[in-house]
Write a structure and sequence with these properties.
The structure is a homohexamer.
Chain A: H1 2-19, H2 24-36, H3 44-57, H4 61-73, H5 78-92, H6 97-109
């Protein structure tokens, strides 16, 4: 699981670095971002799946890794992951396939 | 509700026109697209919300209109729409705001 | 100047409609968006030019119209507009040309 | 064929307006753009098909209209158009479908 | 030629992994993707060039590598590659230049 | 500062390689690209900030590295960088955050 660990360490370190500037706009954006995935009219699980599909069609591997971890922690099953990734594949086209490969690599590295 | 009606009429007419060519690749893509939103490991409702958020971050008004109609038919509530659109806004940024305006216009034109 | 007036009226009306839902995430995003262009380490004028170029390479006509109006109110000259749009054209490629046409149409409709 | 005529008139008028500024960078870009599609190692026809597919996956209707006209003038057949659009659809995904509808509308408006 | 070999090994391994899930939608998409580049109204060579340009303007290095290999196997010459990449550069702008560098690196690693 | 040095060495080497083909269109594009950032109605500093924000919303790490170096050479301060990156973050959304992390890493590697 070291690639995921490396990503999480890097992500945490750099986010702390960014927030250490105390730039008001950036700080508020990070808070807003965290808040968007909290339980509301939609469940956390649904929101994280929305984040995963948005990340896949926009083709951002780091964002895909992050949302797969969040989804896993909220109990998303393998079959649910595949269905969500399939929606992203159909909407986003074959240009998303390298990101599908990335997603599967992350899924397979994770403790099930 | 005429703007939505116009869209649906145009969409149906042009899709029929496209399929009338019997191009094998295009026909199969359209079938695949329809199949991606059918009940599976994830519910139709969740899948349509995934389609709506993907359409919003990719900034396609016609796709937004289409998925709002599908979501409405599957019982998505106003508060659920707002939560999904908020995820899209945070992921996709202020560049999605014109599409948020479009989404609200469609929501307000629809029979509740 | 009616096309610009129409845009401003529609934009104001729909933004009010969106904010009338009092969705906390969306409201905070709109505030954050407005704050990003306020005088800081960079001048308002520079920030609005950044907004204009970002809007052009991301190919959003409504965003282009909005930032041109803001730039004009802050005294951006014709030659400055052309230089900024040229950077956007070179970065974003010929796919931005239809948006360059839109930008020129807005520039020519504005009171100089 | 009036929608295509309107587009061509508007495009010509606005391009002339843009070039009337004599901005050196913009002028050179327009020349460069025209030159890219001239006969070279690849034929004009192949280059225009490349332009059409690039325009479709980047989802620019005006660019699609323009390259369809150019392709038609170079003798691209209906079946060749469909094959090219199918590549764009598979690469770019269902988000390109509204642009496929636009492409078919332009194709059907053109003198065959 | 090891970077290309590594890519091909990884690509094959991960595609097999993805297909091993037997997800119906994903499997059908992969078949559709392969079919889009088969000889039809347009030649395989033209279709692979379309795939290369689409991949470049959408800025996907793995997709660029893949289509360059396919083009090479179909006899695309150096000058034809340059002409196709130039169309992509003009359409997609300077933001594609890092991908142009990638494309040239792949071209130079390949057996001519 | 070795990551930046490596990037600059690779960038220079590959650009020379690309230009060594003497492809007329590509050569002219590279000249046009360099010219777009020269002092004109807008200062070099403003133009490089435009390039940085365009690169960030289009999510190109190599382009971000390049424009940060240029901005630094023109005396852009830390606070000005943060303000520009904040505009990019708000316009482009959370999908740009991995590129914000990259930008901060480059900023911290540079001689102040």
């Amino acid at each position: 699981m070291s690639a995921i660990d490396d990503f999480e360490t890097y992500r945490r370190k750099m986010n702390e670095r960014i927030l250490s500037t105390h730039h008001k706009g950036i700080t508020r954006f990070f808070n807003l971002d965290a808040a968007a995935y909290r339980e509301g009219a939609l469940s956390e699980k649904t929101k994280e799946l929305l984040g995963l599909v948005a990340s896949t069609v926009l083709r951002c591997n780091d964002c895909i890794t992050y949302h797969i971890i969040q989804c896993r922690d909220l109990g998303v099953t393998r079959e649910e992951f595949y269905d969500a990734l399939n929606v992203a594949l159909v909407v986003g086209g074959s240009i998303t396939i390298p990101h599908l490969r990335h997603a599967f690599q992350v899924l397979d590295e994770m403790v099930p």
